[in-house]
Design brief:
Blueprint: E1 3-4, E2 6-9, E3 12-19, H1 36-59, H2 63-76, H3 79-92, H4 96-114, H5 116-120, H6 122-137, E4 151-155, H7 160-164, E5 171-176, H8 184-192, E6 196-198, E7 210-214, E8 219-223, E9 228-231, E10 251-256, H9 259-267, E11 273-277, H10 291-302, E12 309-313, H11 342-345, H12 348-365, E13 368-373, H13 379-391, E14 397-401, H14 404-408, H15 410-414, E15 419-422, H16 424-432, H17 450-466, E16 470-472, H18 483-489, E17 493-496, H19 501-508, H20 513-521
């Protein structure tokens, strides 16, 4: 019996199956602590010990793995999570483990409601939650067991900190029942050269001694567990300049959402930033951050890219991304409601204050600033945003293309702005009516889907006609097999997680522009993986 999922890191291997331990069970709500202050005090101590352990692990590794572990350590040390849990102890007489569980649950609910990149971070919070709860209970946290021989790891999902610490010499492949192409597991597996398949329904029910995994085709087959010639991809080598074999330039940029992300992207050789997500400055704020607070927060992210191009995306929030200071009414379908730039139409002062802070942070750090707005649907919306950005003194203005209507009207939108950037993650979700967080429809969110590529081509054609750049900042840009197709379609820059830069840069050096154009004209751009999986 062969199972199908979404192949996110290439390679074919066969080896013994090892199941990753499940998440911790929910801690009990009773008995009530005798001393509430003492019980609340345990939480900060446990969080600090978890953060210290993760920081120690981070110092033992380098590159993307170090960045992920440092980010997870920072989440464990987040005072907002600790304070929320301590408040639950005092207000409801909860034991510390239960209070941490419920406080983290509130954060996870908000992130999942947000959708997109923020929803993918809910898994990170669950990992931190489990580590703190385990520390409070005095038990080992769930996660990857110590491996003594090469094995195929199988899990419901993997936390980024677990993936970052994997030894490629012992982990033959990764298979998860949940997750998607844009998860940290997928990104890090590619960086480590470990074949991986995600969203593989039924894999937890298999009891065979081994598994044969094809990370390119996305298939998993029971086997006898004998290790057979793993076909591994070598770690790519890239010199930090995005260009094809014939010298044609394609800027390779980083996607960042924190100072740690920015340092990782700079260390990985990013030529700039193609997507700076500013939501981090708002998510845990009880009131709107002041211009001064925003300026300082943004400057910390921009600093590693002094003198280089940086594209900052304005706040992508709304009823599906609840913020304490931004009351919104209930909506039956928040993903299709008031979010992104739509929030600013009734609150232009919110946007104007952010634009002023962004402009000031850019001046402080010396970056080459561009700004772009999320969730733009029409040329009129693009013109409205451009007017506000230019009033703030920002000269280069663009918009995200993540709504099908915007892709279809790219010519009109480009008449109002200086550039556009395709957010292929959300664009795929809307094109295929497929929630990008739902494993059952993950194949439809595979960026190799022909319908998505046709829309990319339409936008790139409009950009070429207008003489304006068209970038891709979704996970489609991070796929070394797809990058030449995107360039052939006319995309001028690719922006991605730091872990993907070297692989994409090396892949582009192997082809010239004629090769890329030939691939983009194919009826089945190589490799169009999802077409053969979406029904099965």
């Amino acid at each position: 019996m062969q199972l199908s999922g979404v192949g996110v890191s290439p390679g074919r291997v066969d080896g013994p199956r090892v199941l990753v331990a499940a998440d911790l069970p929910e801690p009990a709500s009773t008995p009530a602590p005798a001393d509430l202050e003492a019980e609340a005090g345990k939480i900060g101590q446990a969080a600090a010990s978890v953060a210290a352990a993760l920081s120690d692990r981070a110092r033992s590794v380098s590159g993307d793995a170090r960045s992920v572990l440092e980010t997870t350590a920072a989440m464990a040390a987040d005072p907002a999570l600790t304070a929320s849990a301590e408040k639950l102890v005092r207000a409801r007489s909860l034991p510390a483990p239960r209070a941490v569980w419920e406080a983290a649950g509130e954060f996870m609910t908000a992130l999942r409601a947000a959708g997109g990149y923020m929803a993918e971070r809910a898994r990170d919070v669950a990992d931190v939650r489990d580590r703190i709860v385990a520390a409070l209970l005095g038990v080992a946290p769930p996660g990857v067991p110590d491996l003594t021989s090469p094995s195929v790891l199988v899990a419901r999902d993997l936390a980024p900190a677990d993936t970052a610490g994997l030894n490629p010499e012992l982990v033959l492949a990764l298979v998860t029942a949940e997750g998607g192409p844009t998860s940290h597991t997928a990104i890090l597996a590619r960086a480590l050269g470990i074949p991986a398949v995600v969203a593989c329904a039924g894999v937890l029910d298999l009891d065979s001694p081994g598994l044969a995994v094809d990370g390119s085709a996305g298939t998993v087959t029971p086997s006898d567990g004998t290790v057979r010639a793993p076909a591994r991809t070598s770690r790519p080598v890239w010199d930090g300049v995005g260009r094809l074999a014939d010298g044609h330039r394609v800027k390779l940029l980083g996607n960042v959402g924190s100072a740690a992300d920015a340092h990782a992207a700079a260390a990985a050789g990013a030529e700039g930033v193609g997507l700076f997500r500013t939501e981090f400055c708002y998510l845990s704020a009880a009131s709107e951050p002041t211009e001064a607070e925003q300026r300082a927060a943004y400057a910390a992210v921009l600093a590693p890219f002094a003198g280089k191009p940086v594209v900052v995306r304005t706040l992508d929030a709304g009823s599906d991304k609840p913020l304490a200071f931004l009351p919104m009414g209930e909506e039956p379908n928040p993903a299709l409601g008031v979010r992104g730039l739509r929030v600013a139409f009734d609150r232009p002062e919110l946007l104007d204050r952010q634009l002023a802070a962004i402009a000031a942070a850019a001046a402080d750090t010396g970056v080459e600033l561009s700004v772009m707005a999320p969730m733009v649907a029409t040329a009129a919306e693009a013109a409205w945003f451009a007017a506000h950005a230019r009033a703030a003194g920002i000269e280069r203005v663009g918009v995200m293309i993540e709504i099908p209507a915007a892709a279809l009207c790219a010519e009109e939108i480009l008449a109002e702005v200086d550039f556009v950037s395709l957010g292929t993650n959300d664009l795929a979700q809307y094109v295929f009516a497929a929630d990008r967080q739902l494993g059952a429809v993950a194949a439809l969110n595979d960026p190799h889907q022909p319908a998505l590529l046709k829309l990319v081509g339409l936008v790139a054609q409009a950009g070429a006609a207008a003489g304006k750049p068209v970038g891709v900042c979704g996970e489609a840009a991070a796929d070394p097999a797809l990058a030449p197709v995107l360039v052939g379609l006319g995309v001028t820059s690719l922006s991605m997680n730091a872990a993907a830069l070297a692989g994409v840069g090396a892949a582009l050096r192997e082809v010239d522009l004629d090769d890329c154009r030939a691939r983009s004209r194919s009826d089945r751009p190589a490799p169009v993986r999802a077409a053969g999986r979406s029904a099965g």
